[in-house]
């Protein structure tokens, strides 16, 4: 069971699209106001509508979702038992790197929340 170079490159792209957009998704929701509505359905619609209007959220969201499409296509030619840990671990790496570029704190095993 080996991963082809082509599959590894596609999985790296997936990790980059998923992980690279995570800090931007967090940043895109900063300062959003609490939505109001008369019932849960109206509040849900107002929340979705406010996110759709927010380009700082939508651009990273669409890039993130394109990573899911690439992942789905890549799974057709790659063993799932290898694709899942590769994509997920690269997602973590790219999240840390892009967070560092945005001046977020680097994950630290000694740091407790």
TrEMBL record:
Q: Which segments cross the bilayer?
A: 82-102
The reply on keyword Lipid biosynthesis is no
Gene Ontology cellular-component terms listed: membrane
Name its cellular compartments. Answer: Membrane
| Secretion signal, residue range per the UniProt entry | 1-19
Q: Which UniProt keywords apply?
A: Membrane, Signal, Transmembrane, Transmembrane helix
Q: Give one Pfam family, short name only.
A: TMEM234
The protein's name in its UniProt record: Transmembrane protein 234-like protein
Give the species: Frankliniella fusca
Q: What is the lineage of its organism?
A: Eukaryota, Metazoa, Ecdysozoa, Arthropoda, Hexapoda
């Amino acid at each position: 069971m080996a991963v082809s170079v082509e599959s590894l490159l596609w999985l790296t792209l997936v990790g980059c699209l998923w992980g690279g957009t995570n800090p931007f998704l967090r940043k895109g929701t900063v300062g959003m106001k609490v939505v109001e509505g008369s019932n849960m359905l109206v509040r849900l619609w107002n929340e979705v509508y406010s996110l759709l209007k927010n380009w700082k959220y939508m651009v990273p969201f669409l890039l993130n979702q394109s990573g899911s499409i690439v992942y789905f296509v890549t799974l057709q030619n790659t063993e799932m038992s290898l694709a899942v840990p590769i994509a997920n671990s690269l997602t973590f790496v790219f999240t840390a790197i892009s967070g560092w570029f945005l001046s977020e704190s680097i994950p630290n095993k000694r740091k407790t929340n």
